[in-house]
Every structure is written in structure tokens, then in C-alpha cells.
Amino acid sequence: MPVLDAYNYSLLSIPATFVIGMASHWRAIYLSSTSKDLPPFDNRAPRAFLAKIGELSKTSATAREYLRAEAAQTNVFEQIGLYAAAVLVGNFARLPVSFLNKATLAYVALRAVYCVSHPDPPSLAPSVSCANPLGFASAGCSPARLSRLCSS
């Protein structure tokens, strides 16, 4: 694609990934503010609030969905440091711009799909969930891990 060759968009994928992680958190806050089963989100003690929701998860499907949305957000933030380092290393190593753009676009797209699919409906069996394969696939799109493809 000529559009991906014209400019190095790979550095812009780092804040895009951050926004994707925040969107999962905002979804959880929206769930807590609109649900009758959950108390309103408490920003003063978010970990205590998460523990309170964990206790409610035995009886409330909304609480389980809230916990899955927060887990998706946590997963993004746990990986963003490594991902940002991989993007920077790829840029410092002067990998081809087209390759960096395609790898980072794939990562961001898979992270977005992961965050949307992670809070799957409770009616699905855990083995049917597509969140785990999507998480592994997005981790494999890291430019540092894929740089071997360019050098061979």
C-alpha cells in the first residue's frame, strides 16, 4: 500500500494503543454508572472499588462484564511499555517504514478487536472466547519480534 510507505505512522501507534486501553476503562466506568447492580465508579479508591465489584461478580452479570473490561484495560497497559520499546527500537534500527507501519497497524487493530471482544457475553463458554488468541496475535506483531523477517 503506497499510503503506508509515505510517512512513518509507527510512532503514532503508541498513543493510539493507550487510547484503546483507556476506552476499555471508560467502558467499565460507563457500565458502573448505568447499571442498577453496580455502585457508581469511585475514582478515589479504584482498587478497593474493583475488589467490591469482584465480590458482586458472583451474582451480577454486569459486574462480571465490568471486571472483564477492566482486565482488558490492564492487559493493554501491561504490554504498552514493551510495545513502545519495540517500536522505538525498530525506528532506531531503521527498519523499512512500510514494514513498521504494517506491523504497528496490525498490532493496533488486533488490540482494538481484543478490547472489544474481551468482555464477551457470559453465555459463551470460556473455550469459545476469541480474546486469548487475539492477545497472542497482537503480541506477535511487535516490530522487534518481527524484525527478523526483514533481515532474512
Automatic annotation (TrEMBL):
Chief location category: membrane
PANTHER family, alphabetized: BLR7753 PROTEIN, INNER MEMBRANE PROTEIN
Superkingdom of this protein's organism: Eukaryota
Organismal lineage: Eukaryota, Fungi, Dikarya, Basidiomycota, Pucciniomycotina
Tagged with keyword Thylakoid: no
The keyword Transmembrane helix is assigned to this record: yes
Pfam families: MAPEG (PF01124)
InterPro entries named among the record's database cross-references: MAPEG-like_dom_sf, Membr-assoc_MAPEG
TM ranges: 6-26
Naturally occurring in which organism (per UniProt): Rhodotorula diobovata
Signal sequence range: none
Keywords: Membrane, Transmembrane, Transmembrane helix
Location(s) in or outside the cell: Membrane
GO terms for cellular component: membrane
Protein name (database record): Uncharacterized protein
